Amino acid sequence: MEAAVLTGTSAITMTEDKENVLQPQRKNSGKGARARRRGSVPAGAGGAKEGEGETGKPRRLAGIRPRISIEELRNAYKRQASTPQEEILPMFDPMAKAQESKGVTRGRTGLVYDERMAEHRCLWDANYPECPERLTHTLERCRQLGLIERCEPILPRNATEDEILKSHSRSHLYLLWSTKDEKNKEKLENISSHFDSIYIHPETYDLALLAAGSTIDVVDAIMAGKIQNGMALIRPPGHHAMKTEFCGYCFFNNVALAAQVALEKHKLSRILIVDWDVHHGQGTQQMFYEDPRVLYFSIHRYENGTFWPELRESDYDNVGAGRGRGFNFNVPLNKTQMKNEDYLAVFHQVLLPVAYEFNPELVIVSAGYDAAVGCPEFDPELVLVSSGYDAAVGDEKGEMEITPAFYAHLTSSLMALANGRVAVIFEGGYCLESLAEGAALTLSALLGDPCPKLLDPILKPSLSMCESLLNLIYVQRPYWKCFQYQGSFSVHEKTNGDTGERHIPTLSYLGNATKPLQYETRNCYPVQSEEVKEKIRLQLARLKQDKPPQMFENNRLCLVYDEAMSNHHSLSEKEHPERPERTERIWKSLKQFGIIERATILQSRYATQQELELIHTHEHVNLMASTSALSEKELLNMQDNYKSIYLHPKSNEAALLAAGSLLQVIDDVCNNKSLSGIGVIRPPGHHAEQDHPHGFCLYNNVAIAAKYAITHHGCERVLILDWDVHHGNGVQHAFEADPKVLYISIHRYDHGLFFPSSEDANYDQVGSGEGEGYTVNIPWNKSGMGDAEYMSAMLQVVMPIAYQYDPQLVLVSAGFDAARGDPLGGCRVTPECYGHMTRLLSSLAGGRMVLALEGGYNLSSISYCMTMCAKALLGDPLPSLESGLVPNKNAVQSISDTIRTHKKYWTALSFQVDLPVEDVLCQGFGGGAQPVESGASGSEVSSTNVSPVSTPSTASPPYVSAPSSPDKTWKNGNSMENGASPQLECSSERTKFDSDKMDIDVTPIPQLQRSVRSRVKSEKAASASVAEQRDVKAGGMQKQFGSEGSSRMSRRKVGDQGGSGESANHTSTPIRPSRPVKNVGLMLRAAASCVGIVKGATAIVSNENTLDSGSINGILKQCKELKLLQSCTRLEPRPASEEEILSVHTRETLEGHVQRETCSKSPCSGDPALTAAGSFVELISEVVQGNVLNGLALVQVSDHTSSGNQIISNNYINNLAVGTQYALDTVGLQRVLIVNWNAQNGYNTQNLFYSDPRVLMFSVNLTDDQSATKGSVDRRGENKGLGYTFDLSLNRDSQSKNFTQGDYLAILHQVILPVAYEFCPELVLLAIGNDLVHQSPAVSPLIYSHITQMLMPLAQGHLAVMLEVGNAKEITKDIATATLSALLDKAVALLPVIYENTSEVQDSVVNMINVQAATWKSLKQHAQISCINTKKQANASSAVLCDEQQIIAKAFDGCVTTPTHTLCLAYDEGMMEHFSYDDETHPERPERISCIFQRLQEFGIVGRCHQVKTRLASAAELETVHSPKHIKFMSSLHSKKPRELQGMQNSFESIFFHRQSNNAALLASGSLLEVVNSVLRGESRRGLAVIRPPGHHAEKNVPCGFCIYNNVAVAAKHATGVHGLSRVLIVDWDVHHGNGIQHMFEDDPQVLYVSIHRYDNGTFFPGSPDANYNRAGTKKGKGYNVNIPWNKGGMGDGDYMAAMIEVILPIAYQFNPELVLVSAGFDAAVGDPLGGCKVSPECYGHMTKLLSCLAGGRVIVALEGGYNLNTISYCMTMCAKALLGDPLIPLSQGLAACPSACETLNNVVSVHQKFWSALDLKSKGMSPSSRKSKKTPKQSPSVDLADRSPETPDGKTGLDELTSTLSQMSLGKEGEGAKSVEVVDVKMEEEDGAVGGACATSAEGLNTFLLTELSGAESMYAVVPLQWCPHLESVKPVPNNSLDAFSPCEECKDLSENWVCLTCYKVLCGRFVNEHMLMHGVTEEHYMVLSYADLSVWCYSCDSYLHHEILLEAKRAAHISKFGEDIPGS
Fold this sequence. Notes:
- Strands 1, 2, 3, 4, 5, 6, 7, 8 and 9 form a 9-stranded parallel beta sheet that branches. Strands 12-11-13-18-17-14-15-16 form an 8-stranded parallel beta sheet, sandwiched between helices. The protein has an 8-stranded parallel beta sheet with strand order 21-20-22-27-26-23-24-25, with helices on both faces.
- The protein is an alpha/beta fold.
- 32% of the residues lie in helices and 11% in strands.
- The protein contains 58 helices and 42 strands.
- Helix 50 links the parallel strand 31 and strand 32 (1647-1654).
- The protein is globular, with a radius of gyration of 38 Å.
């Protein structure tokens, strides 16, 4: 047999019995393996996917994992069971659902009806369509077909009052109750006339209750498991009934009531309601419009709003509101005569894809049958069907042409959902014959009968239906990822007149929304003529079933199997994958599941020669027959002549038996003895050609069966679906010219590299001659395809074509080698998915379907897969598929290619057209399809712990991909109240961001991408010699992958990055939901929604007309002089209303002010106190309404500061409380933040809201009462408001003169901001006065501008400031101008020096944190939590404060000069010239900057920026940080050949070179320097640099980590050297540590470098200890290097905001920078393929906004990393909006750091509080009880940061010292295993002697293993490995002599700690992740494993590490994979 090669994932991916473990024997593709170079990920590895091989940054691991005891191994399962589920990822068992379905068989169908319901009739119009005969005719037809007696009867009952009130109002219920037994016909008609299409009968009340109660009981019985599914034949119908209104024959909404009971009683979270009644069920829609638990799907006649009920809300753009946005689907039918094909398109294109993504728990069908022929009106947990039949043929109201039989098909397709829990509820339908037939066939389908044949052919869906569905997809694809098959285009693109396959949605409402006072009650319905009735009668006679459907109750399935087929086995390979146990295990599983006893077992037989020769040549048949007489040697020689074939003397006999037995099944099914059948046969057949065996196959079983059905049973149309993972070349060749056989194959192709490696398997092979179009290939071009991909192929391609083909027999080549765990397939299909595909196919051909076993080589998986298929054929309920079923982008491309090829043959494929990315409807839609992952399967959940070598992969949604987008209620309907409008137009105000004034060019630049990529081909040709050094065939493979990637890259549109652009002002986006979100698309939705939200106006309100208005006039005069007042919106002052005052004060207080009449000037009435309160309320009103963004109220008096125990004063008005109460009561806000910084006790305000959790209040007070100071922290609120009051009172004594700005900033940073972000307010109220400044000379008025600035990011910028003017006029002027400058986002001067915090403030802050930590998680997980209990050091002082900074604060002297431009921007397409020659999908690719620039254009930001002229950096500028040698080396690149560059780049870490690399890098650095110049010269206030390549890893002498020149470092040196700055702050939030920047400035006190990055205890790139928290700088730079290292993945907004607020801002304010540079890497953002974190785009905006408070606002953001194009574009856009002063999207409520982040921040504070007094909150004054109650957090290993020289006393460097220490350890004896000795006080180097840099090579020569710190392993150990153990004999040879050291765990996809089994070579995670390797060791007894982290080998049984020569092969293979070279010295 030829050497086996398999591209892609080939390892077994599941745990199975020991006997199942196969060596991964592979089918020969005929092509060599792709050559692997250093740093690349092998094709097919779990991390990098085929065709996408990413060149990432190799990880440097700190050491070997701690020892694992054998006792732990044996108890692994117990630990898994005892560990809380939220702490671990459960071990994934792909067979679990299949196993759980054992014993789950099809239950009975319930039926409820009551013939009393026929009593409900119209007393005044006998011809009313909603008549009793609707029920009686239906029941009679069901009896004729024998259906009722087969059902489980459910007794009808009346609904209770409580049940009705769940969905209806009490008045609604009582109104109908009042008509009970009413005999006055005129009165009943009069009441009915007040409602649309209603008549009321005296019995209506009781019968409506009976209908509702019966519906509830059907659903209740389904959920209780008493019945499988059910139908309620009831009337009156219900789906039009609204909460308080009868409507459309409906009184109580039966379906809504049943759904509500299911939600509340059965705790369901996902219900699907399908309403196919021809009238829109607006009542049901309204009741669940904001509920994400219910997905409502309606298909109804609309005709642009002219069809009843003529509602605007019935159109497709009404998608839900609030959290329910995206959960409402309307399919409006805008023409009549819709047919089966139209409804089928709805199901295949929209309903079923969404349903599988939603995964309901229940399905409810509102079954109206008024769309039937002749009608004039046209994991879920449960599926409810509002089953109206008024779309059926003949219905006089529906006027549609749905055949009755088609309702059975619709019902059948829904029965695969929700474990078969389907409830069908009778609604409309008014053609009695079609109604009765449709309802009866629906019930027949529920009973499991085969779907009847559709007599009319399925044609092309109507143009109107295509438009409706495309419109619906357009508005829904922002919420559902399944809509991937429509491309995107920009309406701004120039098309040269050819719009081609494009569709632009439009809205048209022609209805009449005006309601009459009374409705017609007689003759208000259409009437058919006798001629029409006769035509319908004839049509229905043709369609009506002549006899009851054949039930097949005892013969639904036949089976065939013969043990003699096991005689065929390999003579040379006992473990050959195609082995006898395959059929034996399947048969055993069928027996265990009880399938065999329920099926008919057929007698096997041999195929005759004549039957074989239907397909095969005579010669081939004779040749195979001759094998029985050959010797073993002859057979072995013979089999070598064929591809992947083995022969045995019994092979021909087994093959004859396989083919003949399948023909037995064909006979049984075609003769109607059995409905369906399964052939458990082998050898397989679909590869066998007509004249030779091939690929394990001898005779082509399925091809013979198809030909046999045609010739012997007269079949004219046979469908063969081949879902074997390998293409069925033999079947295709046999029928490629035969139109009688439609062959569809879903298989792996891998661009022709996957077996059978023929171009015939590609999508462009469509058949030939008469068979053209009858061959359909769906080729996967990568491994890892799963349920999402296969179900998508079924719904998008297979089912539409199959229905149009209308087969008479369905044959399935049922290979299960695409199943999860198969050793050959490398895919991830679950057994239940095969069951669902079988269920979908069973609706074809009247259920005549035969499955024949083909491939599948994992014994467990194939047995479960075939069992699930058998259960599907028997009608058993199927396990639900996973939620969020979305195909990956590679599968989407393959399916799209197939559709594009076959749409000319099959008109059902009519929906692959492009939709606009713009919001053409002006409602917030658009943005293109949601981005889907490129990982193994779109339905797989990826680990967030990703290494730099991973390919992009995003996590699936937790339960549904439809997000809760910003809440926008439906408004269009209201706009129609005054008359209909023929066309809805966009509001120019709402779309102002898209106006000509903005000059936004949203045209994509694919031409630019093509221009860059176009050079790849020629340059690759120049480097052909490189490929010649590799395997020739591997080189060919790489070329093919490259060309494919290039073409697809050039086709990408702007909108393909996903996201929707919300066109709204800054008030339209509410608080983001606090619900935890994992879906990337959802986390980007908030950012996408803020397009067009720009900075609003700032208002100022004052009453300068009072008697004492001098202070206010002085303030206004100074503001005017500083040109601040001109920029504000002036509000008119007004007195507060009586209602506003009485909401807080007594009437006595109000009357006292009204009687004074002290106002001297008009227009005020009353006194100034009333005007002050009213003016503040007016300001709040303008802010919350969105008319202004923020504002300042200048008031003269207030009473929130009254002293003592006085609660309500009769003298003054509490302005702050009145304003707050207005926001709560009138506006309806739920979260208001009050910050009272007025220096006086605001007891009144506190007391008013002391128990109100809607108000979070902070008070900073000065008091003379020491007792008040001590007790202030205990004033925390009460009852529900406990913890919502913060009272910080400071003593007003002589010490108050020493209060500093540092004190107030400490309060803000350490208490107010953390809690405020966790609270997530909707409005911020700031009350300020002059006392804090007036009584503390050291405090500058500028402090108020900074307080204001730091509060502005909250509440989306909605901030109202109240300044109480007081008497200190000059200081108050300065305070007012500083505050107003901040509100206007004007530049202000730097704060004077920040002194060390006073002990009193330290004590207050510490006590407050302790007291409130129980309420606020942000305080419980605080950065200071481990430091505040430590005794304060007496001599601690700030090491970084300079004497020259000790300046006495002076009065505010105005704003600094305002720059011409707010923001400058640097971008140049020339930077895109730098890209990888050999890896076009490299994460650091050119599109990173182009997609950002496009997003900036889309948001209108480019037009608001000053674009600087880019330039190249000079050598002199670069030499400030880089060596001349490095610059010279980089300059030489342009003259190198590509092959030379490829060789050179391997000498560096994670670097690629291009001829234009140096030019691009010079352009990046030079452009950033121009931004610095623009800012520092005063041209621009802030800067944004969209540049690449990144820079922060680049060292002085070498490039590193994608970085060539260190752009930000060059800029910092330029700022200090050229512009003379003395303090520059660099904040680096890239997920990787900026080793280059740190090394360049670690001894420079002019540059403060702060980095937030992943460290993972030294295992995360760049893997250097320099990134740890203890590296604080060297020499003069000590303290100026701050590392914040995360030790785990998954860090999010709470962690980053805690770091920013509690650590970075305190240090930064003390440093007082003159410029802030941000190394803005966005690889910590959600969805990034390298970072593994989940920071949202808006969080980056908030961090930018907070940094803008520093350096007078001079902040420059420069792009570093970030590799998810969609994510980084939104992240940089949010930063730009923050720099422009736009309001920011609020972050999630409940924001707090996780415990791991808290521990990191504690460590950082403990190191840096000695350098920065702002971090030093150590307290002497804490009470002992506080200390006792606090838990001490887990400490990291001790670190000595005492000053010492770079070398130890004996001259050794850090590594020498460490090695010396280890050599002195007492090591255990070999005979005793490896005993460890703890190393105490290991000191980590911090000075110049620190070992290496980020790019330094690791030391060699250590003879012992260093076990470094991990979770749960704090100490260090040294061990000696064993030299031998008895289990070495279990080590097997390395497969293909190669390993992939970067493979993820095959179970959980984690990348952090993986091991490879040296017996079966599975890759699984270790004990500190999810213990999957431990599980493997337990189940398989495979004891020898090798760590991919450090290449050590561990024996589980011997409980020890091992080192032996037999292990060298595996170690060498791993070393080559990991480091690109052999083990040194080997």
